[in-house]
Amino acid sequence: MHTLPYTDLNTHLRTRFGCRVHKITVDAGMTCPNRDGSKGFGGCIYCNARGSGTGASAQASIAAQIRGAQPFLRDRYKAEKFIAYFQSFSNTYAPVERLAAMYAEALSVEDVAGLAVGTRPDCVPDPILDLLAGISARTYLSLELGLQSIHDRTLALINRGHTAAEFFDAVRRARERDIELCVHIILGLPGESREDMLETARVIGGLGIRGIKLHLQYVVRDTPLHRMYERGEYRCLAREEYVDILCDFLALLPPDMVIHRLTGDPHRDELIAPAWALEKGTNLQAVRNALHERNLRQGARCAGSRHG
Asked: How far apart are CA 292 and CA 10, in angstroms?
């Protein structure tokens, strides 16, 4: 019986596939329009040169990266099936032919049961969505769109290079093709109040999106945010603040939305602050304890309406 006060990804995948399923992050050697000069350089203010890099090596083929990770995950987590997760940078930002080849290569590896494709909402033109829809009709596919906030003033401040309207348009076009979506949101972004973050929850909760990844805004070395932090222009959330906001955020989401993450995993050698961001197990337990103490569950305050 499901006992967590939210719909977690592990339970969702086990129910869907009937076995333990684990993601394998792969690096396809991509970039994004916010780095290559199309829209800007340097990326978002919280990203360094590695961006959302995984530590995988784009010098190894996609199939080699997957096969290299499988034995460890089988042994440690008893995983039987795998989802190839194209995580680093924008994994739809290339010609359709290149994308089709790299997705096919991942799916050709034994026991790969599907794909998760991370990208930006301004990198999913219709031909690429058509490609993803074709894959989705044959196997599991989750399209992960980085949004971070629904507030345009925040998106401008963090140098995202796209608007909330572009995200809503991408969601609409993906849903027209029955593509499963997951949205990335960051709590604790510069300039955002508690109410700003909860407004993001209310809006996202009404879009019919299947999954969500919630991240803590932490400070990474050698980034614009690092410089803001050193100048005293940015303060990280304390753990108690993050947990409290996160509980209210979850309560505003639909009860069946799959929670892929409740916090991020910073690289230890890059993290400037807050130090508690490294304590994943403690942080997850703090969220669960707080939900229990406040008698809250995911969806407890959800309006229940869906549109888009």
From this structure: 20
pLDDT at 58 (0 to 100): 56
The CA distances from residue 34 to 42, 156, 162, in Å, are 7, 12, 9
Residue 51 has pLDDT above 70, yes or no: no
Kind of pairing between the strands at 258-261 and 140-148? unpaired
3-state secondary structure of 24: strand
State the Cα–Cα distance between residues 179 and 176, nearest whole angstrom. Answer: 8
Cα(126)–Cα(132) distance, rounded to whole angstroms? 10
Q: Tell me, what amino acid is at 211?
A: G
Cα–Cα distance between 122 and 4 in angstroms, integer? 34
Q: Are 290 and 238 in contact (CB under 8 A)?
A: no
Is the torsion defined by CA of 274, 279, 280, 282 positive or negative?
negative
Q: Residue 148 corresponds to which tokens in the numbers above?
A: 């971070």
Question: Whole-prediction pTM value?
Answer: 0.93
Site of tokens 């309560």: 251
Query: Is there a contact between 90 and 123 (Cβ–Cβ < 8 Å)?
Result: yes
Rounded distance between C-alpha atoms, residue 146 and residue 186, angstroms = 9
pLDDT of residue 305: 40
Looking at residue 265, its amino acid is D
| Per-residue model confidence as pLDDT tens digits over 262-305 | 998 899 999 999 999 999 999 999 999 999 999 999 999 997 54
CA 121, 126, 129 angle in degrees (round to 5)? Answer: 70
Closest CA relative to residue 45, chosen from 243, 247, 244, 231: 231
Strands of the chain, DSSP E = 21-26, 81-86, 112-119, 140-148, 180-187, 211-216, 219-220, 258-261, 271-273
DSSP secondary structure, 100-118, as one string: HHHHHHHHTSTTEEEEEEE
Closest alpha carbon to 44 in 223, 235, 272? 223
